[in-house]
Design goal:
This protein is α/β, with parallel strands linked by helices. The chain has a domain of 240 residues: Metal-dependent hydrolases (TIM Barrel, Alpha-Beta Barrel). The strands form 5 sheets. Strands 1, 2, 3, 4, 5, 6, 7, 10, 11 and 15 form a 10-stranded mixed β-sheet that branches. The protein has a two-stranded parallel sheet with strand order 8-9. Helix 1 links the parallel strand 1 and strand 2. Helix 10 crosses helix 11.
Length: 405
């Protein structure tokens, strides 16, 4: 049997969500997804009234929808009363309106934001989603503030008796499969790596993506992907190295000094340098829960970065949006069709014909040979030039002597 293998970015937002580009509309998203190299994209915000109207006007199909050659799946993100975010997929517009009605009773104004705030807990949200034949899992599960593990020590603490009905866990930008699989009870759950994009720019859209194998492209075949069978399944996750994420290491939110976990605890989560709040990083959060060395059955995870960022780094250009960066990006796309092909599929020898410096960087990225200053406390990691070693200075807790008083 012949299977489809497609690239997917399954968590984005519409122009009706806060702090999101007004260019986040279906025609623009479809065009940019094609250039990026993803064939199936989440719609984002599919419970918002005006966005639903936009989706119905622009999309054709049933279950899996399309605009020209790009496919879309009805998707939203919601926030519960514990500030935990959840990603939801729905099989059709009828179910989207049905779930909107269920949730409306528990929201002051479900249309106030593309990502609605609900006075429900994770268990109640899961129950209502499943009643509408939807799929649900935690969004950016390890991220501080709105990730599940920022508020709970386990999936069951959040979802109760519906924990076994979860379809997936979204990793977020500060984690990958390798560190998430240090928690053994996650081994039987499908991991998703999505962009959570607020912009259609190739710098944001599908900066993390999933490669999936399906028998056919419809919602029921999509549902089977999360059953971890031998046929329909995720075959590859791709995204940031965790060090590049905004919350990877424990760090002071004010002066951005890095902390070892034990020193942050000794400081009672107050910075010994400036007195600011220390934010626990994803790496330390997972280490506290770790009970496994990993999961050899997990699909491969490839660390990637937006081509725009690679070009700017290779040519020592500060602005990702400079005219020169755009010219080089255009050359790669004209020759190799889309960005994902350039990042992970095209032989380095072919890339060198377009730009040798960029090709060297892409080769280094593929081999995980790029050094960077890790991210933390809301700051992205910073890529370093080839051959340069990252120096990370940690605060060192010292016991005070009588002379200090």
């Amino acid at each position: 049997m012949d299977f489809l293998e497609i690239n997917t970015d399954l968590h984005i937002h519409s122009k009706y969500a806060r702090a999101v580009s007004q260019k986040m509309e279906i025609p623009i998203l479809a065009e940019q997804a094609k250039l990026k190299g993803v064939q199936l994209v989440g719609t984002g915000d599919c419970l918002h009234k005006k966005w639903l109207e936009h989706l119905e006007k622009n999309l054709e199909g049933d279950g899996i929808y399309k605009y020209e050659s790009t496919k879309f799946i009805l998707q939203t993100e919601v926030q519960d009363k514990n500030r935990v975010h959840h990603v939801i997929f729905l099989p059709n517009f009828t179910k989207a309106y049905e779930l909107r009605e269920k949730f409306s009773r528990f929201s002051k104004d479900i249309d106030a934001d593309g990502r609605p705030w609900l006075y429900l807990n994770g268990k109640e949200i899961a129950k209502k989603t499943l009643e509408c034949d939807g799929l649900i899992g935690p969004a950016h599960a390890f991220t501080p503030y709105f990730g599940l593990y920022a508020h709970f020590d386990s999936l069951k603490d959040c979802y109760g008796e519906f924990v076994d009905k979860l379809s997936f866990l979204e990793l977020g930008l500060s984690a990958d499969s390798y560190i998430a699989d240090k928690i053994s009870y996650l081994h039987n759950l499908t991991f998703l790596s999505n962009s959570d994009s607020h912009s259609p720019s190739p710098l944001r859209l599908a900066r993390e993506f999933n490669r999936m194998k399906l028998n056919q492209l419809n919602f029921e075949e999509f549902r089977k992907v999360f059953q971890q069978g031998e046929e329909n399944k995720v075959t590859l996750n791709a995204g940031f190295h965790p060090k590049h994420g905004k919350y990877h290491l424990t760090r002071c939110k004010n002066c951005l000094l890095f902390y070892k976990l034990e020193d942050a605890k000794k400081q009672n989560w107050r910075c010994g340098n400036c007195g600011g709040v220390i934010k626990k990083g994803v790496k330390d959060l997972i280490e506290e829960l770790a009970d496994s060395e990993g999961n050899p059955e997990r699909p491969k995870y490839i660390h990637i970065y937006p081509l725009t960022e690679i070009i700017a780094t290779a040519h020592n250009i500060k602005s990702f949006f400079s005219k020169y960066v755009k010219e080089i990006w255009d050359k790669f796309i004209e020759n190799f069709d889309n960005e994902i092909k350039v990042l992970i599929d095209v032989p380095v020898e072919e890339l060198e014909k377009i730009d040798k410096r960029v090709a060297q960087y892409i080769k280094a990225f593929r081999n995980d040979e790029i050094e960077q200053i890790p991210g933390g406390a809301g700051e992205y990691g910073k890529l370093l030039p080839l051959g340069k070693k990252a120096e990370v200075k940690f605060f060192k807790h010292t016991q005070k002597s009588l002379g200090d008083y």
